Amino acid sequence: MNAQARITEAADTPPDRPDTSEAPGATVSYAYAVSRAGTALDTTAPQLTGLEGRPLRTVVSGGLAALVSSVPAGMYSEEGMKAQLGNLSALEVIARTHHAVVDAAYARTTALPMRLATVYRDDARVRSMLRERGAAFVELLSWLEGHVELGVKIYADPREAATEAPSPASVSPGRAYLQRRRAQQRSQRDVYRAAGAVAADIPGRVAAVARARCAHRPQQGELASGAGENITNDAYLVPAERTTEFRQVLAGLADGVPGVRIEITGPWAPYSFATPPAAGGSA
């Protein structure tokens, strides 16, 4: 089994959620990331703040360290998490805090992001998880060493490409309307075909720079940034020192293609390559 195939096995450690019978004031251990022990993370962990404003610490076992914080057992039990994840405001706080901790950790050392809302009954259970998954974690950390994630999104916006030619004066209003509608439909098809062609060209262009690629579901609604429809939402694992080269390879690729836009985001901690897809295919 190669390193990328081990991602699901290593990172998908099932949470050890407490039941709702925990005594008031009881806490559980929320895990954000896993790294090698003895790194800068050990000394900087207490300077970071996790969920509920709690300080972070490292739990060490067998050369690995998990970055954790204590959270209220009632709020992070199975029922408590269902309630929080069903509340958009609460979910946003959890997600933002989780990602901020992971980003801070990855800025200091190679760290393997854990799934959102990975909770264990106590630090002893975290140590057990590190022992059980240690070999896979070490392999993944070695695979991710020195790499970051860059996102590449392709947008298609037929409105940007639309040009409306005037109808001859002899054409009736009804016929002129039909002509405009047909022209708009042709323009829309052309834009989506062009966007598809640009998207298909990207993996080959960056093959020499990127180590791996992960295709995500296109973003919709508030998740999509800017005008147009997001038709491609890919993540690439790139050596940290080659991010500028990656951007240069794609520079100008959509120039002169009306209605097609490329957006490159990052660098980020490599979530897409350390966390398995959740139910439904999103990562």
Question: What does this protein look like?
Answer:
The chain has 283 residues and is of the alpha+beta class. It is 37% helix and 24% strand. The protein contains 8 helices and 8 strands; from the N terminus they run H-E-H-E-E-H-H-E-H-E-H-H-E-E-H-E. A 4-stranded antiparallel beta sheet has the order 2-3-1-4. Strand 2 and strand 3 form a beta hairpin. It is globular. The two termini are 21 Å apart.
Per-chain topology:
Elements: H1 6-11, E1 27-36, H2 40-44, E2 57-61, E3 64-72, H3 78-85, H4 88-106, E4 111-120, H5 123-144, E5 147-156, H6 158-161, H7 173-206, E6 212-216, E7 229-239, H8 243-250, E8 260-268
Antiparallel strand pairs: 1-3, 1-4, 2-3, 5-7, 5-8, 6-7
Number of helices: 8
The largest β sheet comes out as: 4 strands, antiparallel
The count of DSSP E runs of length 2 or more, i.e. the number of strands, is: 8
Our measurement of the CA-to-CA distance between the termini, rounded to an integer number of angstroms, reads 21 Å
Mean pLDDT value: 81
| Rg, Å, rounded | 24 Å
Low-confidence stretches: 1-14, 276-283
N-to-C order of helices and strands: HEHEEHHEHEHHEEHE
Helix content: 25-40%
Multimeric state of these chains?
single chain
- The strands making up the biggest β-sheet line up spatially as 2-3-1-4
